[in-house]
């Protein structure tokens, strides 16, 4: 599930695909599936990287790409989808949901994946209003909420980040450093489809300096390719539990106090690494899925709020 994109797609009629452990979708096996015309407004205004008409049958052909350079190309279909809530068995039936039948798919995908469920704000994303009644299920802390910020120039979900604290140090940046600007630049995105949290270069350098000044370990200047760009500290396996400064994201009305495992990673090759990186020339901040581990995150679009609570996600 990816809150940073809008298209649901799965592999079918594969020409070039990545391996998956179960059969690809066969749309002919569904009595309700049908193709989407290239004259359909979705095909014309769907926000794809590229879309158009297939030769011969005027079906909608799409190409969509992602930040990690993954790409899917295929045809658009629509069908009836049934979603079941794991906790209580409640079922939601959604007719005529549009999805991509990915025929040419390349990029970074896990061994148990068959596509991407894009639940962003734009077309053709399906969004469901309301808050689930089991938000407190498996919760290990208090429920917090913060306002979602709408960017008219983007379909991403934005938050109002006010500041960052590393251990004893509040970084010397006020809310303006993370604010959404009138031209649509800047701002802070929360995205379940991006792995790591990143900050503009000046903010990131300040964060690095705060960690370096508070961690009593030498900095590893020769990270392996897996952790290139991350701040890592050289440490022996016996000292891998060395205390690390807290990392807190101060949001509008909420403080996201990240548990250690959501921003610190240990490997024998690189030591203790802070799993946050620089956004480079990008003026946006981004909260990625590594920082959202074991956090029940709810997008309440009816009230334009994001709710989050520490939880045992494997038990939900």
UniProtKB/TrEMBL annotation:
Keywords: Aspartyl protease, Glycoprotein, Hydrolase, Protease. One of its GO terms (molecular function) is aspartic-type endopeptidase activity. GO terms for biological process: proteolysis. CDD domains: pepsin_A_like_plant (cd05476). Residues 1-309 form the Peptidase A1 domain. Belongs to the peptidase A1 family. This is Peptidase A1 domain-containing protein. It comes from Triticum aestivum (Wheat).
